[in-house]
Amino acid sequence: MKMLGGMGGITQVSPEAAAISDPADAGRVSPMLPHGEVSRLFVSVVGATVERVSVNINVAFSIRELRDERERAGVTALLTDVLESESLSSEVFITFGGDGESLSVTVDSDYPVIFSGFYRWQDPFEAMLTSRVTALVPHAELVFDWEYADED
């Protein structure tokens, strides 16, 4: 077996797959076998590596258009529960904004939060939170503003 280093750690590759690597790619494995078949090993190696890739994300999202303190208190309690269940409660803080009939609750991080598999987590999280917030306050507006800190 040949060992390849990567962002997710060391990956083992069979001698057959390693033998078809293009030297110009410095250790990348070609997905094609000599007879034109797609290498199942390549697919599993890539899948395992992608699942372990982590990214630094500046967490920022808001729930806006809340009409009174009762709605804001309900949304804050909901967010507290969601952030705890998602293991984010120690990574972010909740602030209040607005006045009159246009109140808001915002969740932010002071520093980038490291996510493993953010690409898998983001859409289901946004859908779940949107569903729960709009069930509680149908007219609320959610705005997600994730920032990839590594792209700065």
- Number of DSSP helical runs: 4
How many domain modules?
2
User: What is the CATH C-level name of the largest domain?
Assistant: Alpha Beta
Q: How would you sum up the global shape?
A: elongated
Radius of gyration: 22 Å
Chain-averaged pLDDT: 77
Helix content: 25-40%
Helix-strand blueprint:
Layout: E1 2-6, E2 9-13, H1 15-19, H2 40-51, E3 54-58, E4 60-66, H3 69-85, E5 93-99, E6 102-108, E7 113-116, H4 118-136, E8 141-144, E9 147-148
Helix pairs in contact: 3-4
What are the main properties of this structure?
2 domains, four-stranded antiparallel beta sheet, 152 residues, 9 strands, 4 helices, disordered N terminus, Alpha-Beta Plaits
Q: Could you walk me through the main structural features you see in this protein, from its secondary elements to its overall organization?
A:
The chain is of the alpha+beta class. The protein has two domains: 2-52, no CATH class; 55-151, ACT domain (Alpha-Beta Plaits, 2-Layer Sandwich), CATH 3.30.70.260. It contains four helices and nine strands; from the N terminus they run ββααββαβββαββ. The protein has helices spanning 15-19, 40-51, 69-85, 118-136; strands spanning 2-6, 9-13, 54-58, 60-66, 93-99, 102-108, 113-116, 141-144, 147-148. Strands 5-6-4-8 form a four-stranded antiparallel beta sheet, with helices on one face. Strands 7-3-9 form a three-stranded antiparallel beta sheet, with no helix packed on it. Strands 1-2 form a two-stranded antiparallel ribbon. A hairpin with a 2-residue loop joins strand 5 and strand 6 (102-108).
